[in-house]
Amino acid sequence: MAPGDGIRLRILVEPQHGGAYADFLAMALAVEDAGFDAFFRSDHLLGVVPDDPAYQPTDCWTTLGALARDTQRVRLGALMGAATFRHPGLLATIVASVDQMSGGRVELGLGTGWFEREHAAFGIPFPAQRERFDRLEEQLAVITGLWGTPPGDPDGFSFDGAHYRIEANRNPPRPVQSPYPPILIGGSGPKRTPAIAARYASEFNTALGGDLRERLGTFSRACEAIGRDPAEPRRSSVIPTAVGGTPAETERRASVIGSDFIRTNALIGTPAMLTERIAELGGLGVDTVYLHIYDIHDLDHIALLGAEVLPHVTAMKVATP
């Protein structure tokens, strides 16, 4: 992205109590109507409160596949998908299928996975952190390898890793976007996360908390270390958001934000305060911002953000990384 092109503003929804497909669709249509660039959802099977009896789990990519047919313009994706949930060959096929269904509007966010209780509750293995990073790196090699193999290649695509093996796949999944859908990678790790992102990511997403400037600098240095232009990949950030026209409205929206850590890093206040925070991120080189919303039924929140924040953001300048 060229500096000065403006900031992409997106909505990321992680419902406090989960939601039915009708809830996700209503929110996605509101996001589209308000003019936002994209609608993303979390890839979780449990909520912030792990044993909340009101939580309704849904599969991320099943939802996105349906939204691909029921929306027209917004880009769609997961932030972040858990590499522990799906085999990379299957995930490459799922994402390519949804890319076809959407006419080329899909983005793949992928991370190591972190929610151990969630894995236990659904019988999904949860390896130690080192192995999860190893698996993530192999998954990205498999997914990009499959997507980058031309159909009919006589040799096909093969991969022989410590955790995954692909044998002469001559019928790779075929996404619409060329060379393939954008890949989002992010997190707070100081070594492996930026190194993996430098190699595979179209967009590096910073995690909440910590020194954002240093995290972005570490990613730039990781790109330089492998000969990649640091200005090529996008840089994004997430802002847990509770904005209102009155103090009471703001506090009502803030009350559904989950943990104290998230609340500490949230923007709770007026549209002008949120606009100022986004401008600060643009000054650090962030060109894409995800507003993290927790109440899937509060469509008025989306309308307010679209009317009073979005018009100012699209004209903002982005600093050179």
Automatic annotation (TrEMBL):
Top-level division of the source organism's lineage: Bacteria
All copies of domain Luciferase-like, residue ranges: 14-254
UniProt xrefs under Gene3D superfamilies: Luciferase-like domain
Keyword annotations from UniProtKB, A to Z: Flavoprotein, FMN, Monooxygenase, Oxidoreductase
Coiled-coil regions listed: none
This protein's record includes keyword Flavoprotein: yes
Record PANTHER family: ALKANESULFONATE MONOOXYGENASE, ALKANESULFONATE MONOOXYGENASE-RELATED
Name of the protein in question: LLM class F420-dependent oxidoreductase
Gene field: ssuD
